[in-house]
Specification:
The structure is a homodimer. Helices cover 70% and strands 3% of the residues of chain A. Chain A has 2 domains: 11-73, Arc Repressor Mutant, subunit A; 82-228, GntR ligand-binding domain-like (Four Helix Bundle (Hemerythrin (Met), subunit A)). Chain A has a two-stranded antiparallel sheet with strand order 1-2. Chain A is mostly helical. The interface between A and B is large, with 47 and 46 residues. Chain A binds a DNA duplex through α3. Chains A, B: GO terms for molecular function: DNA binding; DNA-binding transcription factor activity.
Chain lengths: 229, 229
DNA sequence: ATCAAATGGTCTATAATTGGTCTAGAAAAG
DNA sequence: CTTTTCTAGACCAATTATAGACCATTTGAT
């Protein structure tokens, strides 16, 4: 949705981008933003547009702009213990997924409904159309694992997986993960996703869990291979 | 309504997809949706269809559309970090622990150090002095499981377990849990804790994981027994 | 202290974008 | 068949964006 490469950015879009930079911490308290003329250039928008975005952010209390000087960040993002999660390494994340997802498969067998399976089926189809589009595949993959945990009807588990997805969406990671996604790897993942879905459909908890373990092992290998290069 | 594959999307489907984007967080408050013409293109539907979906979402209060400007997100999805965790039921929590803790045992075998084991040993001793003090036992028990996950040296897992511990510390739960803790039950738990610690010490990952499963099964039984009374 | 550069503030005429509305026909559902 | 829904286009009105200019203040170097 937001992927749209050369989509023209409006004031609202630019405001949203900067707002996120601030909440994420890439722009910290008292930092000065680039000059309006530079921003307008780098966002590919006219200065007036950037200016409108900044005016909005000022009203919202994110920034303060001083004439002749610049625009400064004035906002302490609520520290939601995010720090603990932000520093997670890819390997830590893999271990957490190893703990959670196989058992989530078992629970999905117990509590999953037809509509859940249909949605997962649709996501499998979508992923199979993405052999050459790592970015789109990655999004669909995240959705698939989210749909899987939704089968469990366990709000706590869903929340945990969402938190993990947040970590995975960090920019650096996303870029690195896309590097590991060649055509071959995506094809392997697709096969495994199908197998997992089928095992859940036929109500075979242990088989589903085992394929998930395989799936995660594959992912871990891709990861270590990528960090070697 | 057939959901499968790349079928044509109806207004209801598109509304559902966008609704999902919003609750998932990919579309946040104040974000502007892509123009109707772009949406219609990317969903492969006519503009009128997209428009119908948006009208629906507006009635539902997810979105607000301003003529000449765009369609904007007006909905703060319930901040899960509070609500999802606060509303977790004891059984949901048990399932989450079933997913996490056995694998945490395996990881503890890999990464645990002598000092970790000493600390857990000490906690075992403390718990064994608590046969008649459910409150003190409960505290030590929480510490034990926290010490266990610390063995993994995995900040993400530690954070997750801490979150779960927060849930467990809710007043109602604590009271209920204390009811299940008679002398016999505590003794059983103590035995299991010892066994888990020993299995980790002797570097037997699967044995440790299995005893943890037993342990959790025992806890689950106590729980269901308690809710029957 | 002075000057030059950089930066935000303001304005304007024009062009582009966007939602709102309508229509006629095709497709799907009952 | 009838009814509903979707499609594909067109046009309108409101809003927004563009590109450039000029000003006032701040900043930093000389």
């Amino acid at each position: 949705m937001n992927v749209s490469a050369d989509q023209k950015l409006g004031a609202a879009d630019i405001a949203a981008l900067i707002r996120r930079e601030i909440s994420k911490g890439s722009l910290q308290l008292h930092d000065r933003l680039p000059p309006e003329r530079v921003l307008s250039d780098s966002y590919g928008a006219a200065r007036g547009t950037v200016r409108k975005a900044l005016t909005r952010l000022e009203k919202e209390g994110f920034v303060e702009t001083r004439p002749g000087s610049g625009t400064y960040v004035v906002h302490q993002p609520d520290d939601n213990s995010a720090s603990a999660i932000e520093h997670a390494t890819p390997l830590e994340l893999m271990d957490a997924r190893f703990a959670l997802e196989p058992h989530i498969c078992r629970l999905s067998v117990l509590h999953g409904r037809q509509s859940d399976f249909d949605r997962m089926e649709e996501l499998c189809n979508r992923m199979e159309d993405c052999l050459d589009d790592p970015v789109a595949f990655s999004d669909a993959d995240t959705d698939f694992h989210r749909a899987l945990v939704e089968c469990t009807r366990n709000g706590l588990l869903i929340w945990i997986i969402d938190q993990i997805a947040t970590v995975r969406s960090e920019d650096d990671w996303t870029r690195m993960r896309h590097l590991t996604l060649d055509r071959r790897t995506i094809a392997t993942y697709n096969t495994q996703h199908r197998q997992i879905l089928n095992a859940i459909r036929t109500r075979e908890p242990e088989r589903a869990a085992n394929i998930m373990k395989e799936h995660l092992e594959t992912a871990r290998l891709s990861l270590t291979r990528a960090s070697d290069t």
